[in-house]
User: Fold this.
Amino acid sequence: MKKQDIKDIKQLLSTPKNIVIVPHKNPDGDAIGSTLGLYHYLIKTKHNAQVITPNDYPKFLKWMPAENSILRYDSQTKECNNLVNKADIIFTLDFNAFHRTGPMESVLSESEGLKIMIDHHQAPDDYATYMFSDVNMSSTCEMIYHFINMLGDIDLIDADVSTCLYAGIMTDTGSFRFSSTTSTTHKIVADLIERGANNSQIHNNVYDTNSLNRLQLLGTALENLKVIAESRAAYITLSQEELNKNNYTKGDTEGVVNYGLSLEGIILAAIFIEDKQEGIIKISLRSKGNFSVNEMSRAHFNGGGHTNAAGGKSYLSLKDTVEKFISILPYYNNALNNE
Assistant:
């Protein structure tokens, strides 16, 4: 971020403001962690801040400090619209295009509040007055740490801020194993622990609270795992019927795609999840090395993300979506087999 931008933002935040903080639709650990981390900082600096999520998020994220203060746009629309329309500043975190907020796209694009984007995804839209965009960052939570530091307020990162930011960094780096995890990331994590983040408890809260239904759904997913050896690819399918049979709740499929990627010799993994309510197949793609699932998702599945982690969607049937995926793999065989 430019020094002049930081100077301008610091001036903006020098007096109390009405501020709304928004993550993307279907927020994950980085989205919730970054919005709440920024929320705690803004509250400490005497602003009237409010986090608004487009919709619900997994139960394993509903323990973070002040999580119960979050408003949901899909169920509290009128109140949320009023807050967005009255906001002096709107922070958009962990996304870089308004359509990523689903039902909030219109109200955000029409709002007159000054927009500040903090995000680490590729190809940002040009909607924000101030933009902190860096695809090399491990997570938006890491960027929030840098943002607070650039404002000269590192000492205001307390246990609540640290807990939220640690959770987001941990989840978006796959517990610090993804290539986006740098030495700087580890230094930040160490500082967050010193400032009050209980790393062991945070890990337990996110990863060690499985329900029986979630584990049984994982079993179904693994039974459906298929390997395409010539393309060094693997994929998993979950039909709506299979989700219903296992009493699926939001977040139950989080991380399942990584089981395919963990297979020896596999460079590309995908999971295809049927969502009859939305009329789509939800797609998550993961890769190793330099193979870009961001490019694959943008080209074929109406999505995008990072080089090694991307999402998308298909309006075809589950069967036809899988067939499409299999049909395009030969075009990528050279890249996959050269990794």
